[in-house]
Amino acid sequence: MIQFRFRLTPMRDIRPWGGDTPSLSWFSLTDSWYDLEASGHQLFRCSDGRYVD
């Protein structure tokens, strides 16, 4: 069985950037992480335990 887990970064954790005029863009609003598991093996997990972002 294959499982795909996807989670957006919570809005409270997203910070605007941009110097003198900070703003939110589609890139910051779609900040997320994902994990793909097949037959009990996590395929895209970083060696230090973090998920791909």
Counted by DSSP, the helix tally is 1
Order of helices and strands: EHEE
What general form does the structure show?
elongated
How many domains make up the coordinates? Answer: 1
Note the beta-strand portion: 25-35%
Task: Kindly report the average pLDDT value.
Answer: 83
Report the radius of gyration as a whole number of Å. 15 Å
Q: What is the count of β-strands?
A: 3
The residue fraction in helices comes out at under 10%
User: How would a textbook summarize the main sheet?
Assistant: 3 strands, antiparallel
Structural class: mainly beta
Which strand order spans the largest sheet, edge to edge or round the barrel?
A: 1-2-3
Query: Termini separation (Å)?
Result: 23 Å
- Give the low-confidence spans: none
Q: Characteristics of this structure?
A:
53 residues, 1 helix, 3 strands
What does this structure look like?
By secondary structure, this protein is mainly β. The protein has one domain (1-12, 27-53). The chain contains one helix and three strands; from the N terminus they run βαββ. It has a three-stranded antiparallel beta sheet with strand order 1-2-3, with no helix packed on it. A hairpin with a 2-residue loop joins strand 2 and strand 3.
Strand-helix topology:
Blueprint: E1 2-8, H1 26-29, E2 32-38, E3 41-42
Antiparallel strand pairs: 1-2, 2-3
In short:
The protein has 53 residues and is mainly beta. The protein is 8% helix and 30% strand.
